[in-house]
Amino acid sequence: MVLLLKHHALLCPSCGQVQSSSAKTRAKCLSCNHSWALSQKGMSIGVLGSYWRPAEAGAHVKMAKEARAGAQCG
Question: With contact defined as beta carbons under 8 Å apart, do 55 and 13 qualify?
């Protein structure tokens, strides 16, 4: 069973965009408009982390974006 808290740091499975969301069952990418289920057959899809507070999800998204930018530069 996958436990999804109220706020999530998400990675779009289509384009790789990192974003935060409070979606419960489905998410929609703000970049490519791809929609996907957050959980299928007991596995989370594109969920980098789940948090009780939106600031925690936002911090995770910020760190993930910075890490991706650093990897592309190096």
Answer: no
> What is the per-residue pLDDT across 19-74, written as a single tens digit (0 to 9) for each?
999 999 999 999 999 999 999 888 889 999 999 999 999 999 999 999 988 887 76
- The model's pTM is 0.84
CA–CA gap between residue 56 and residue 8 (Å, rounded): 9
> Residue 65 in contact with residue 22, Cβ under 8 Å?
no
Say if residues 50 and 69 touch (Cβ distance below 8 Å).
Answer: no
Tokens of 10: 């998400």
Distance, CA of 5 to CA of 52 (rounded, Å): 6
3-state secondary structure of 31: coil
